[in-house]
Amino acid sequence: RVNSMQWIESFCDKFAKYLGVIISFLLILMMVNVAFDTLNRYLMNSNSVALQEMEWHLFSVIILLGTSYALNKEGHVRVDIFYTNFSAKKKAIINMVGVITFVLPLSLLVAFGSLGFVAEAYNFMEQSGDPGGLHYRFIIKGLIPTAFFILIFMSIGYFARNYNLLKRLNSSSDS
Q1: pLDDT at residue 1, as a whole number
Q2: Looking at residue 134, what is its pLDDT?
Q3: Of 18, 108, 112, 134, which residue is most buried, by most CB within 10 angstroms?
Q4: d(C-alpha 90, C-alpha 46), whole Å
Q5: In the 3-class helix/strand/coil scheme, how is 59-125 assigned residue by residue?
Q6: CB 147 within 8 A of CB 68
Q7: pLDDT value, residue 119
Q8: What is the pTM of this model?
Q9: Cα angle vertex 35, ends 31, 36, to 5°?
Q10: CA atoms within 13 A on the CB side of 79
């Protein structure tokens, strides 16, 4: 029988797989964009502001979404000098405390704090200030709160994974 914390963990793991596919596609798209821009610049002696801005936009999306993926895959930064030597129980507790103490408060702050920033960009239909640049800059800015809401969701899944691990470890030590 699957309890709610196991379901949350499973759902977040499946979501992370799809997120990984999206990020992989965006990485390929960014590499093609950079290659095309470079060839265009050096072989055709032509420069495209839109292509250069697209590089940064794709890079931003990859980083913003990649944060949630990295958390799910344990690819985030920690002080591994100490963490590596801890028991599985201690690691699970540290991960849960880290989510509650650091990840959730910061993510909530950025997610809700950036909503006004995005609304302002949308109201002004913000676009690139450079001639030939990209229109609709508010779309990329809209990904800031979206990515942090996804991080909140994924951190709940990460908490659930560590809670479930701790529960399994405690029940196996009771046996």
Answers
A1: 66
A2: 86
A3: 134
A4: 57
A5: HHHHHHHHHHHHHHCCCCCCCHHHHCCCCHHHHHHHHHHHHHHHHHHHHHHHHHHCHHHHHHHHHCC
A6: yes
A7: 95
A8: 0.89
A9: 115
A10: 4
Which amino acid does the sequence have at 91? K
Catalogue the long-range contacts made by 9-14 (C-beta closer than 8 Å, 24 or more residues apart). Answer: 9/157, 9/160, 9/161, 9/164, 11/157, 12/72, 12/153, 12/154, 12/156, 12/157, 12/158, 12/160, 12/161, 13/72, 13/157, 13/161
**Cβ-based burial of 79 (10 A; exposed 0-12, middle 13-18, buried ≥19):** exposed
Q: How does pLDDT run across 57-113, given as a tens digit for each residue?
A: 999 999 999 999 999 998 877 777 888 889 999 999 999 999 999 999 999 999 999
CA–CA separation, 132 and 10 (whole Å)? 45
Residue 118: Cβ within 10 Å count: 19
Which residues make Cβ contacts (< 8 Å) with residue 146, sequence separation at least 6? 64
- Residue type (1 letter), 80: D
* Residue 140 CB partners (closer than 8 Å, separation 6+): 57, 60, 61
As given in the structure block, the two tokens for residue 51 are 């292509």
Q: Tell me which residue of 15, 21, 19 sits closest to 156, measured CA to CA.
A: 15
